Amino acid sequence: MRIGICPGSFDPVTNGHVDIFERSSCLVDKLIIATFENPVKKPLFTMAEREDLLQQAVQHIPNAEVTSFQGLLNEYAVERGVTVIIRGLRAVTDFEYEFQRALLMKHLEPDIETVFIMTKTDYSYLSSSGIRELACFGGEVDGLVPDAVARRLKEKFKDKYQV
Ligand code: ADP
Known about the structure:
alpha/beta, Rossmann fold, 7 helices, binds adenosine-5'-diphosphate
């Protein structure tokens, strides 16, 4: 059985992420979608909230499993029998960071491959940080994030959306 993992902060999950999940789910038997605490980033949503929103966003993908982990991705991947790490690529700016991460992973776990899926052009401008910024000023997020995420953002910034 081929097990893949899509790791990320998913703070929150966007339609760009969901597109990557849908397309990568066809390449593996089981797709683990895992959120984790990135020590460099200060999250808007807790890990439990992010996991819950991911769960609602991937209900239509039968071989997807949503989970979270702490610590090192390479150790978690080995523990779960993962052979493929799947990451999305939007722009040249993503490349440098992803390239370094993929090479580091190869050094740590030579049996695991990192695979990149190009964003759909419609979502190439979409990022979780852009969504957080938009929502904190009461901007329209419908169509950019799954419905459950849009509802949760509007609850979180309800004073901005009531105007
Ligand atoms: P991280 O903190 O690990 O970068 P993110 O939640 O920001 O986690 O992103 C997870 C993955 O999804 C990354 O590989 C990122 O490049 C990819 N990604 C984010 N937004 C998009 C998008 N709009 N289209 C395609 N891939 C995306």
